[in-house]
From TrEMBL, chains A, B, C, D:
Requisite cofactors: Mn(2+)
One GO term describing the cellular component: cytoplasm
Cofactor comment: The Mn(2+) ion enhances activity.
Domain of life assignment: Archaea
Name of the protein: Aminobenzoyl-glutamate utilization protein A
BP-aspect Gene Ontology terms: folic acid catabolic process
GO MF entries: dipeptidase activity; metal ion binding; para-aminobenzoyl-glutamate hydrolase activity
One Pfam entry name: Peptidase_M20
Keywords: Manganese, Metal-binding
Residue span(s) of domain Peptidase M20 dimerisation: 223-295
SUPFAM superfamilies in the record: Bacterial exopeptidase dimerisation domain, Zn-dependent exopeptidases
Key word Metal-binding present: yes
Native source organism of the sequence: Halorubrum alkaliphilum
UniProt entry tagged with the keyword Electron transport: no
Length: 422, 422, 422, 422
């Protein structure tokens, strides 16, 4: 397939495949953002980009500067419109706003980032077989955010004729994977006047034709990057002269798993990545690790995060090393509003391709939680809904794909719900 | 045997057996001190007792107040002279001083405490067979300090006729076991004008007839008592509500053994005792432990002690508990002066019962080190010597005993050396 | 108060106070068992004692032989009837059976052991103020089993006139604390023909007048005693020659708390007691610890117990030490039968002193679970019920007490329910 | 500089620079071996290559097959003589033998591998400035083995005229870094009839003009690669389903540092590299680590290695994971023979460029130890000597270099010593 240099003449299915082929991981969505912004402005939406779409200080898990710069360069080389790349500077994601009438402000939140994983390249995988697998090694739309972006644009097109009594705000959020982009967008200010918010996810093992009117009970979650910094020394000659960062990391890991279970509900802790890299005869001067905690509630998650910080601090003291921690990402919990759920159910019921409407537990974590809570705290209402998509393999795996019919259903259900909410 | 109520009419062998039978552990040597003081005053020595024989603030590893009071009471009940018990108040040990002439001041240091261990009570053990095993359960002269006290008194008797051109200072030190009494006596002020100091140990696996003119290269050593204090909680209901003192102790112990070996020489660390005592369903609110570190030099010992403190501090931080540490005891290293060693060798050579004179490594730790260093820092000289004693079983074991001939040899060699040093 | 030497002339309130004053901890209930047995035989019940009331091989957490012997001796000295002490040999607890008619067999299970804890002795505590606090230091009826025993006897008295068409089996179980006595009694054979079983607990923070017709969802629980056995060595001279039991225990504890949380429900792990006892300069040759695990289901508990055994085994391998483990106690889960619950509710409703009937979660663990499961597996039905008792302080605390009215209510409710079940 | 395709017309200085420029790390020395072999055959030596120069089963720390193949390919592309590459198949290193007369067999051992590290490329570094820095990124002659190879060839040239009454055996050993190649060459059989062996090292912070006639007291050392293999699982959904390789590694590391110090002398342990690499929400299925132990004697090293294996085994048991270990490398201790040392001293004395002859401690580890021990066990004698080389920066650092005069001195001293030993 040809790489698109503008979206306006393409169908949503073509756009989804183009985005799939140019998968951009979190905080690297330059091409995605620029192409979306270009058409949204054409459609009459005011477009807020880069530092104007988020609170930049709240961004988490931002890749090293040189990687971000390389992703920006890559987008330009692939023909992304320079004007929009310039306007976003080095921050991805966008908020598109159009006032049609004096009615309420309705928000629709979709996320646009890919995962950092390699896509399957064999013929068992439709994107590979049909030529739209990711051209970026190690980046893949394995969670359907390509379809989310297409749905968001589809909703924008739906209202482009201007027949709507209210304001429509479309949130195209960067860096959902890892829970890195939700909080900064929630604190952009653009959520503060939203009366009703809809967030959407495709797939999640539901078939095409099923609409989940409410995903409930997500887990709160926090991801912490930790670096212990000590001093190297020759392990044979004078081990005492070192300050052993690996011993600190080891003490931390052993005790992190031992954080007390909580009487108030489920908690989790895991260390997924550890790295210390020296010759065998050198006392480790640096060790890094990536920790994740979870809790069945926001407070349980905070308990785990607080205890994690104590353990890390104590481990560093023990071995006389320094350390730095950075939040890689964070999500919280949310509860959908019954009124919005019911509106979604009415909208789904009115959509002919929908044959099953259910409510279910979410199971995972989502940083849409921050946007939903922001809206609710200001008196608004919100719901997180799902669109079945026949995904042939699990989310985050190399063979993940979706049936693009889900995009059309998503646009229809959300479009109808938006009109009803106004 | 009858319990003595005064030493003056008894032989040194009888006195040693009486002390053996009334073994008093560290900081509990009330009867021993009082009986020694009584005869020393009779012999014309000025006697400094209790808070006047040590710097009380430097005392380490002092037993709980009620145990000390019970030991004092026990001494009175056994007929120890009340006057001296009163004068020492609640601190044991003494310094005896007599100026005979204008010559130099010579010090002799002996220690007087027993060990906290049970003595063998069967007929394989001569003290049991001959009726002078310890009457105090759990206290035993298993390191020959009963003989040391007798030697110190013997030297005092030797010079009682007044024929000596100098000042004699006899240090009867309490609480050598664990290294608890040396530092406070070293800082009493009485060492500051000592020109030459002799310290002595019997046994140490040498036969009667052998004199060790110089024990070299003792290890520096420090013993630390640690208590972690957290909060209890029901381990089933809300384990999160506890602050787990046992997890802190566990983290500490694991990491203490992992303190880096030192390129500069031998180091040691050990935890000998750990205690946490709750029902199985209670998060431990308190855990105690006893740590020992050693180093081939004073600096290596300080390295280990410093790292130990860091590990404990970090472990407490990790598990959000409080902690207290107290030095249970401490020793340092010393080097004997060649001039004093040679004097001892001449004295030993002049003693007919001596048939072998050697120098050797000490192997263990000794808080005479503080007294020796104090003398040397002021320009004096010192040596730590040994008297073979045919001990049938190892030091600190239940069957330890000595051949009392060693007492006579000790008095002869030290007496002769003292005269030569003046 | 006077110590009773027979129960037959005493009221249930007097008997409860007598038992409270002579609190006997698990597997030491010689006096309690003997006095109960004596009256039960008088009342016409057949009495099965000692090894005839349990499967002796299944007994857990039995104290050392000398402690059991001392408790037996203590009972005799307090005037417990010798005949029954002789018949029970060295095993406590009893099963009393009487066939009144051909109707069904109804079982009533009460437990009779005290806790190993000191009772408050000040006037704020009614048992102390009124002279029936425990005369056994370190043993206290702090969980109401004294009242349970009285209720069991009260039910026996209730039916002594013979008017009942069925068989009554009364289980007076030893060693419920720690979950040590339930499994052996469940495997005695006496449960196998029980058609309906009632088990009862007083207090549990409910007021007098409340009956809990069903305590639900107890946690399964297992308690493991662990001893690591290594080799001692001098920590200064040759630490390498030791096999360090404390390092093994430390490695075990650190990793026990780190056993993975379970996706299937709540789990718990705790180490309540650790002991290693050496001088500071000795590599620990022995370390003991007491571990408890729990699970929201039997399988979750087995998961924790299995992982615990792996951790202990690995820790011993790591430090080249031997180890032994012994189950100190174990409980499982149970579900009450709706038919029995409803019978209890009818009986409670018919009792004038009862003003509130509820069902609630149990929260803790109970080894009645084994008896209940045994009955149910054979096709019988069962329920675990509660009788409010105005306990002024929490269970297992020094100021625990009950309002003895609860005994009367218990006898009434159970008696009525037993008649209805036949 | 031009890349050499044959050594025979080049000077030793040119050859050293050519080898420096084409640094080949351990078990990758294809070009080095081939070019040396070609000239050695020209000079009349019998050349044993590949599997004929070592016991292949004893090779340690061999890189992955594809890396070895790539190194072989690289050598061919750089013009290394195909015949010799073919003859060595996939194993590097060579033994060259020539019998000149009936006298004794004299061995000379040099090593030929580079380090896995990046060379400095700026003008402060002479090899960079003068154009002979390594063309292989991440490989560098930072320990002078390029000079060793040149010295070995220089000695071969020295005797090429045939005037020598004995047999000369030249050992060009691969993979000395990490101690990977010594043992397999020692067990090739070629050492078994060597009467006298000389091994040599340049640099080691000595100036040009200094000869170290005997390096003493190397440490024994062993390097172990460990991989723990468990099962992944979703850390949020069902952490219990995983078998956590990282927890096993953590338990191992914490306890490895805690291996008891040894009363018999210095020991060391270090973990230089740890790697576990998953997303934060995945229980680690694999963790790798590189461990090094050392001992002041062969036995102390074996003690550490044995304890290391126990700790790893126990850690795997604890967390129910599998593991594999592989020796990355190993060295032992040796003692030089006085007769050979004195011969070296005479030879050095006869060399005009030598102005200082010393003996000193080696400090590090060397797998020439295995060759030396092999010769000595068969009744031969050996010494490990040093040639000062003005190295401007420490061994193993990016700016390491040598003064090539050292090559000439090395050839002279060794040549003279070889003649004297025959």
């Amino acid at each position: 397939m040809d790489t698109l240099t503008a979206f306006s003449d393409a169908s949503l299915h073509e756009i989804r495949r183009d985005l799939h082929a140019h998968a951009e991981a979190g905080w690297k969505e330059f091409r995605t953002t620029a192409l979306l912004a270009a058409e949204l402005e054409e459609l009459g939406y005011g477009v807020h980009l880069g530092a104007d779409s988020v609170n930049p200080d709240e961004r988490m898990g931002v890749p090293p500067e040189n990687e971000v710069a390389a992703a920006r360069e890559r987008a330009l080389e692939a023909g992304a419109p320079t004007e929009y790349i310039d306007r976003m500077s080095d921050i991805t994601g966008l908020v598109a706003v159009r006032k049609f009438g004096d009615g309420p402000t309705i928000g629709v939140r979709t996320d646009i980032d890919a995962l950092e994983r390699q896509e399957a390249m064999d013929d068992d995988h439709r994107p590979a077989r049909e030529g739209f697998a990711s051209v970026h090694p190690g980046e893949m739309h394995a969670c359907g955010h390509d379809a989310h972006a297409a749905i968001g644009l589809g909703v924008a097109r739906e209202f482009a004729d201007g027949e709507f009594d209210g304001t429509l705000k479309l949130f195209f959020q960067a860096a959902e994977e890892g829970g890195r982009g939700g909080k900064p967008m929630a604190e952009s200010g653009y959520l503060d006047d939203v009366d009703h918010l809809l967030a959407v996810h495709v797939g999640l093992d539901e078939p095409v034709g099923t609409v989940v009117s409410s995903y409930d009970a997500p887990l709160a979650n926090a991801k912490l990057d930790v670096t212990f910094e000590g001093e190297p020394a020759h392990a044979g000659g004078e081990p005492n002269a070192g300050r052993n960062a690996l011993q600190a990391a080891t003490a931390a890991i052993g005790n992190l798993y031992g954080i007390a279970r909580h009487g108030g509900g489920q908690t989790r802790v895991n260390v997924g990545r550890v790295n210390a890299d020296n010759a065998q005869n050198v006392i480790c001067e640096e060790a890094t690790m990536r920790v994740e905690v979870r809790g069945g509630t926001h407070d349980l998650n905070e308990y785990m995060l607080g205890r994690t910080r104590e353990v890390i601090d104590g481990a560093a003291t023990m071995h006389d090393v320094d350390y730095e921690t950075g939040l890689y990402g964070k999500t919280t919990t949310f509860e959908n509003d019954e009124s919005v759920i019911e509106t979604v159910e009415v909208a789904a019921d009115a959509t002919s391709a929908v044959d099953r409407i259910i409510r279910k537990e979410f199971g995972g974590s989502e940083d849409a939680s921050y946007l939903i809570r922001r809206v609710q705290r200001r008196g608004g209402t919100a719901a997180y809904l799902g669109i079945g998509a026949n995904n042939p393999a699990g989310h985050h795996t190399a063979y993940f794909d979706i049936d693009e019919t889900a995009i059309d259903i998503g646009v229809d259900v959300i479009g109808t719900a938006v009109r009803q909410l106004s």
